[in-house]
Amino acid sequence: MRRVPQPYPDVFVRNRVDLTAPEAEEKIAERLRETGLVTVDGLASRTAALAFATRIMDLVPHRDSDSDGLTTIRDTGRHAHRAGFAGFGNGPLDPHTERSGTPNPPRLMLLVCGQPAETGGECLLTDGQAVHCDLFTGEREAGAALAQPRTAFFGAGDGHATQVFTVHDDLRVSVRLRFDRLARWNPIVQSYLPRLRAAAGRHQVRLDLAPGQGYLLDNERWLHARRAFTGERLFWRALGEPLFPMLRGFAPAPTSVRTPMLSEAG
After folding, report:
1. Has residue 61 been placed in a domain?
2. Which residues contact 214 (CB under 8 A, 6 or more apart)?
3. Using a CB cutoff of 8 Å and minimum separation of 24, what contacts does 164-170 make?
4. pTM of this structure
5. Per-residue pLDDT at 148
6. Which CATH number goes with the domain that contains 40?
7. Which residues touch 48 (CB under 8 Å, ≥6 apart)?
8. What value does the mean pLDDT of the chain take?
9. 64-83: per-residue pLDDT in tens?
10. CB atoms within 10 A of CB 67
11. How many domains does the chain have?
């Protein structure tokens, strides 16, 4: 029997913006600048998801997108074991940044539920600001190492040399991460990866989305993941650049403001 997702989990309610309210776009822009995460509902079709996406971003076409700019996320039955294609299987996904192996990952990601899984398939989100604070307080040497330029290479042969935390000239920070077979690491950070993975897990929140519900996140701040699932799970994804100004990354939490200045390499 198909489970019925709870329509408004706490994290969904706290971050929800009513798309029918006056000045919804302004509220979304403000929330993204402040927390990097917005939840939405009422997007009951692919057409509705696309219409909303084009209200707040310039869509970025890529390898997996369809002709309208959206990507259909479902178990294709043929991609699960291909590196970089795990999203098109039914297995779990580790916390990651969308398009992490490109020089400039899209700033925004929208994910909308068309049909939930029969079991599992919950969305898992991790605030990169919380992970950064965690690693620069309790594990300061880990955070400093993971901010060293060019200590990671994400992607296949045409991927990108970068680092988990990029510190910009104004001391704001961007996060970029993946844990799959397309992530290669400099030996100086290898010993810190278990701490990084543990911190990403500690700060993870769950979204069990119902049809028409979705989330919009800042891809320079939030990591997203997924639990394994059974059934015909169907989601639509949009990637793009915001139609409103946003500063790079996020402001470090107060307990980690002493993050060392590093040259930007990511």
Report:
1. yes
2. 39, 40, 41, 43, 49, 110, 111, 112, 113
3. 164/189, 164/196, 165/132, 165/259, 166/249, 166/262, 166/264, 166/265, 166/266, 167/259, 167/260, 167/261, 167/262, 167/264, 168/248, 168/249, 168/264, 169/264, 170/247, 170/248
4. 0.90
5. 97
6. 3.60.130.10
7. 42, 212
8. 90
9. 888 999 999 999 887 656 66
10. 6
11. 1
